[in-house]
Amino acid sequence: MHDLRLLRERPDLLRDALRRRGALDALAPTLERAEALERSRREAIRAAEAKRADSNAISQEVRRRKQAGDDAGALIEQGRRLGAELEQLDRERADAEAAYTSLVAELPNLLLADVPAGGEEANRVIRSWGTPRPATAVRPHWEIAEALGILDLPRAAKVAGSGFLVFRGLGARLVRSLMSFMLDLHTITHGYEELWVPAVVNRASMFGTAQFPKFEDEQYGLVAEDLFLVPTAEVPVTNLYRDEILEGATLPRAFAAYSPCFRREAGAHGKDTRGLLRVHQFDKVELVRYSTPEHAPAQLELLTSHAEAVLQQLGLAYRVVLLAGGDTGFASAKTYDLEVWAPGVGKWLEVSSCSTFTDFQARRANIRYRPAAGGKPAFVHTLNGSGTAFPRLIAALLEQYQEADGSVRVPDVLRAGLGTDRLG
Description:
This protein is 43% helix and 20% strand. It contains 13 helices and 16 strands. Helix 5 packs across helix 12.
């Protein structure tokens, strides 16, 4: 959510952000309607102030006439008419404010100055780590996983439908080992507080992190209860402090949480559907940070380095990509994607998005902090990133570490959890 003064005082900032996202033409009608509603609200306020001044003057004159014993009937009737007109103006102002707030909720976050304009083609590779394995004589992960008996897609489809997974034996143990490895890394080494959060959230939580209203058709819902399966642990973790005021001395705060994640992936039919590349349910460890505004840029770099540490310890070649405006998520002000190299499919696979949301989510969820130096409460800045998502990571592991005999070597950091140094 934007500061509602934005359209009134600096509409140029919002138009520039929409232009850099490539969304100005599509959202121009929404912006124009919001500006018209804001004008209507201000006009209603000015008219109400003028009538309220008249009403006060009439009330004073009525009192004077009554004290003098003069007739005040006509003035009293005039005052009643003014009161009815004031009530109507207040209703018009409230209706305009509600419609304005609803429209502004449909507008994406402002982009930071260093986010390049353009679409996916304008994304920038910031840095790389490791040496990608050549994409020759490497079988795709779904073939290796099927041969090893660790992934059962046909039975997953039978019990739930396409886009769902069943890991078996060492495959299931691999998922569990990844969860423990990541949570231990982020909590013990990086200092995050571990949370175990609900797998369902309410509508207010989905609005708070900006999944709603724009992405409601992407979510799985429990209609009777008006609850929703979490698309990421970001939603329950960020909303833990909704409608609360934190002490500034406690910031920054950092949380790590594992959760299953559920996404309908509407509109993605036929795109990267083989194996583990695009699924409806997956596992992920999420990192969330609260920060004061002045420290948020450094917090984004720190959070991104924590997600990178996962890939470094797993020995997977990756690159950090700064997303251009048109490829940046609706709520994000700046995003780095971490992409691992998967030689079997010959692609860079996104396994983490690390984003700063400035105060966009905090305004929607009303999360504030009290500055240590005093002063009125201000909105926190929220950040999050995958630390990391499992399916594509597993795909990269199976392709990076496969041997000629069909077995797969296990990275050192996972061997204790798996109880073996090799799959197969």
